[in-house]
Design goal:
The protein is of the alpha/beta class. The chain is about 35% helix and about 20% strand. The two termini are about 55 Å apart.
C-alpha cells in the first residue's frame, strides 16, 4: 500500500479534499493510505506556538524546527518502509511528471511538509528533509495546495488507482508532450464542431491527429519542452501539416458551393498544378488534356462543378457526376455492391496552399452531403494505380476497392483505373 503523510496546520481542510473523488475511492479500497498530521500537536509550549520571530529581523514569523521535526519523525515511525520527506517550497526544484513517476516507483510513501507564515527554520530542512519541491515560480500563503497537488499526481500512478495505465500514459507530460484536445457530446456547441477526424471511426487517423495536436500544442505553448524532443520524420511531417492547417484556419471558414464562371481561371490553375504533380510522380492520369477550362465550363453547365473555399480563396475543385458513368458498367476483377443510384467524384484537385490541411477530406465529406441531400446513398470514384494520395484519401474516408475500369484516354496513355465505392 502506498502511503502519503501531510504535515500541516490545517489537517481538516487537507483531508476534506484528499478524501474525495478518485483518491478517496482508492483509499476506501485499501490501495493507498493518506493521513494529515497536525503540527501543533508536537509543540512543547503551553500556547501550542509553532512559529517565532526571525533572527536578523524581518517581516513575519518562521516555523520552528522542533515541532516540525517531531511530527515528521512520528510519521516515519508509524509508516516504516522507504518514505521520502519533501518540503513544499518556492525555493525547491520545479515539480514535473517525471518526479511523480520517480516518487511512485522508488518509494513506499512520501511525507509532505507544508510550510506557512514566512517559511521554516533552515535547520529543519538541512536535518530532516530529503528534497524540496516547488510547483512553479509563484508564492502561496502555505504549502497545503502544493502538497495536495503533488500527492494527487503521485497517487494516480499507483497501480489500481486509475482503471488502466492508458488513463495517464496518454496525458500531458507523460512522454514530454502536452495532451491533445478532447471533445464530448454534442457534436456542435455554439457553432463550434467536433473535428471530423474524431467522428469517422478510423482509429489510425484519430491517433495520427492526436499526435499532430500534441506536437503543435507543445511547440506553441511550451518551447522549453519542445526543445527537448527528438522528432521523427513523421513528427516533422505532422508539424508541417499542423502549420498549414493553422494558416488555412486563419484565412477564414471552409465551405462548399457550386462552381461559377469566375472560378474557372483559378480552378484551371489548380488543375494544371495537379497535372504537374502527377507528371512529376509518373502517374499517367490527366496527361491527355483532360480536364481543362472547357471541361470545367461543362461541369458548371451540367450543375456538377463544385469548389471548396477557404475564406475568399478557392482551395479545391471537383465534379460530382450525377448520372451513371458509362465506363463503370464494364467493371472487371470485382463488382459494385449493388445497382442502386450513385454519384461519382471526378476531377478533384486541391490547391497547393491548402494541401495537407484536411481539405481533401472535407471535399469528400461535402460530396457525401450532396449525395444525401438528393437521396443518393452510393458514392463512387476511380483513380490510377500509381496515384497513392488519392487511394489513401478514399480508403481513409471509408471507400472500398471494387475492381478495375477503363476510362477514355488518348493513344499512348494508360486507361486503367482502380474503382472505389462507399455506402453513404
Amino acid at each position: 500500500m502506498y502511503t502519503v503523510d501531510i504535515l500541516t496546520l490545517f489537517p481538516g481542510a487537507v483531508m476534506a479534499m484528499m478524501g474525495e473523488s478518485i483518491i478517496g475511492r482508492a483509499a476506501k479500497k485499501g490501495l493507498i493510505d493518506v493521513r494529515a498530521h497536525q503540527i501543533r500537536d508536537y509543540t512543547t509550549n503551553k500556547q501550542n506556538q509553532v512559529d517565532d520571530y526571525p533572527y536578523g529581523g524581518g517581516m513575519g514569523c518562521i516555523m520552528s524546527a522542533q515541532p516540525l521535526c517531531d511530527c515528521l519523525e512520528n510519521a516515519k515511525r508509524e509508516r516504516g518502509g522507504s518514505v521520502r520527506a519533501i518540503y513544499l517550497s518556492p525555493c525547491g526544484k520545479r515539480f514535473e511528471e517525471a518526479d511523480a513517476r520517480r516518487l511512485a516507483r522508488e518509494y513506499d510513501g512520501i511525507i509532505l511538509v507544508c510550510g506557512h507564515y514566512e517559511g521554516v527554520d533552515q535547520r529543519f530542512i538541512d536535518e530532516c528533509v530529503d528534497e524540496e519541491i516547488s510547483l512553479g515560480d509563484f508564492v502561496l500563503t502555505g504549502g497545503e495546495i502544493p502538497a495536495m497537488a503533488v500527492a494527487d499526481s503521485v497517487l494516480r500512478l499507483v497501480p489500481g488507482v486509475l482503471s488502466d495505465p492508458e488513463c495517464y500514459e496518454n496525458e500531458s507530460h507523460w512522454d514530454g508532450l502536452l495532451e491533445y484536445p478532447q471533445y464530448t457530446r454534442p457534436e456542435e456547441w455554439r457553432g463550434r464542431s467536433v473535428p471530423e477526424v474524431l467522428l469517422n471511426g478510423d482509429h489510425t487517423q484519430v491517433e495520427r491527429w492526436r499526435r499532430k495536436m500534441q506536437l503543435a500544442r507543445t511547440k506553441e505553448r511550451r518551447a522549453d519542452m519542445f526543445a527537448l524532443l527528438s522528432l521523427s520524420a513523421e513528427d516533422e511531417k505532422l508539424l508541417r501539416e499542423a502549420e498549414r492547417e493553422r494558416r488555412v484556419s486563419e484565412m477564414g471558414p471552409v465551405a462548399c458551393r457550386p462552381m461559377r464562371e469566375d472560378d474557372i481561371p483559378e480552378a484551371a490553375r489548380i488543375i494544371e498544378d495537379a497535372k504537374a504533380y502527377l507528371r512529376a510522380h509518373k502517374v499517367d492520369q490527366w496527361q491527355s488534356g483532360y480536364p481543362d477550362e472547357s471541361t470545367l465550363r461543362e461541369f458548371i453547365n451540367a450543375g456538377e462543378g463544385y469548389v471548396v473555399s477557404v475564406g475568399d480563396r478557392v482551395a479545391a475543385v471537383f465534379r460530382l457526376m450525377k448520372t451513371p458513368d458509362p465506363n463503370y458498367a464494364a467493371i472487371t476483377d470485382g463488382k459494385w455492391s449493388d445497382d442502386l443510384p450513385y454519384y461519382t467524384i471526378h476531377a478533384s484537385a486541391v490547391a497547393p496552399f491548402a494541401r495537407g490541411c484536411g481539405i481533401s477530406d472535407r471535399l469528400v465529406g461535402y460530396a457525401e452531403e450532396l449525395c444525401l441531400s438528393d437521396g443518393i446513398r452510393r458514392l463512387r470514384a476511380d483513380t490510377h494505380r500509381r496515384n497513392k494520395p488519392m487511394q489513401s484519401l478514399l480508403t481513409r474516408n471509408g471507400f472500398r476497392y471494387r475492381g478495375n475500369v477503363l476510362v477514355e484516354a488518348r493513344e499512348g496513355h494508360d486507361p486503367k483505373r482502380l474503382a472505389f465505392e462507399k455506402r453513404v
